[in-house]
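As the work plan foresaw, the team has encoded backbone shapes as discrete tokens. One protein thus recorded appears below exactly as we store it.

:::
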Amino acid sequence: MSPVDLDAIRFPGQQTDERVFLFLRRHWISFVGPVLIVMVMVLLPIIMTVFLRYLTFDMESVLVNIFQGFDSIDPGLRAKQMLVFMYSAYYFFVASYFLVLWLDYYFDITIVTNERIIDISQIGLFNRVVSELYLTQIQDVSGNQKGFLQNLFHYGDVIIQTAGGKNNFVIDHVSDSYGVARKIVDLQEALMERRISVDDAVKVE
């Protein structure tokens, strides 16, 4: 669940006695869908070129005729340059799209400490949303695995019900969602026990 050195993790606003117990990212299988989409986008111009040639449609000849209409010098060269530009622009777009998808996957993280849950969502290249939930606000925690893939690869959602009628706090597509849910419950119970012990000690004094 946390294949990193948890003791080395530091984040803004971390308390001196606050320890990180879970460092979560979405399961890698959740990134397979976007990768397949990008692969289709990469292959699409090649497939279209082969298909159009099968229909005896030559894009370069069309561009040559267009440049001839503009009385362009060396329309054949201009047509080839335009094709290179079109392909380059398209693949630059595909690469940029993949970069955005990767950043969204890689920088979407959830940190669970002995005090709270911090959820960091990367939105595009430059936007980030940080949400936090203190363990004392939790009413119920449950793990959820739906469908064949989630049960096969043992990942799913962790659904956290909060006090005060607020919306559920959801950790999406994490490995061993049941184990994560149990760990959060254990941390909450340990926190409550510590606070009861401190209150009892204050009363004795």
About this structure: The first strand starts at residue 20 and ends at 25. The helical segments are 32-54, 59-69, 75-106, 147-153, 177-204.
